[in-house]
Amino acid sequence: xxxxxxxxxxxxxxxxxxxxxxxxxxxxxxxxxxxxxxxxxxxxxxxxxxxxxxxxxxxxxxxxxxxxxxxxxxxxxxxxxxxxxxxxxxxxxxxxxxxxxxxxxxxxxxxxxxxxxxxxxxxxxxxxxxxxxxxxxxxxxxxxxxxxxxxxxxxx
Length: 156
Hints:
By secondary structure, the protein is mainly alpha-helical. The chain has helices spanning 5-13, 19-38, 47-69, 78-81, 90-101, 105-116, 121-128, 132-150. Helix 3 packs across helix 7 (121-128). The longest helix is centred in the middle third of the chain and has 23 residues, at 47-69.
């Protein structure tokens, strides 16, 4: 719990509109994790796969929340969840977040998981139940869309 709670909280907080919802989901996620480990539904093989499994549990809780209440999540307060040693200036981060909002949900999720959560493509693929190469392609295309949105010229 102590080793993963901050990463999992950040993962959840980026996807829900209130801190209280994020804390509730974090608690429920670790309860489900405990039940899964006790019932031996998960077999540990690596740290990345374990983190992916915990994120999968959290993602299911987030989906359940959205189905229940249909809130709208915003990235306006993402700066709270990004570490203070970020290399971007506040204005740059706001521009990036606005650009992220222009991506479709799937592309935005892959970029968030890789860039903000630090998950590798294999862990993302496991979490989203997709192939690793499909995730890499989706990520690359999403980055190209972001460059286009931000006005960067295509590399030739």
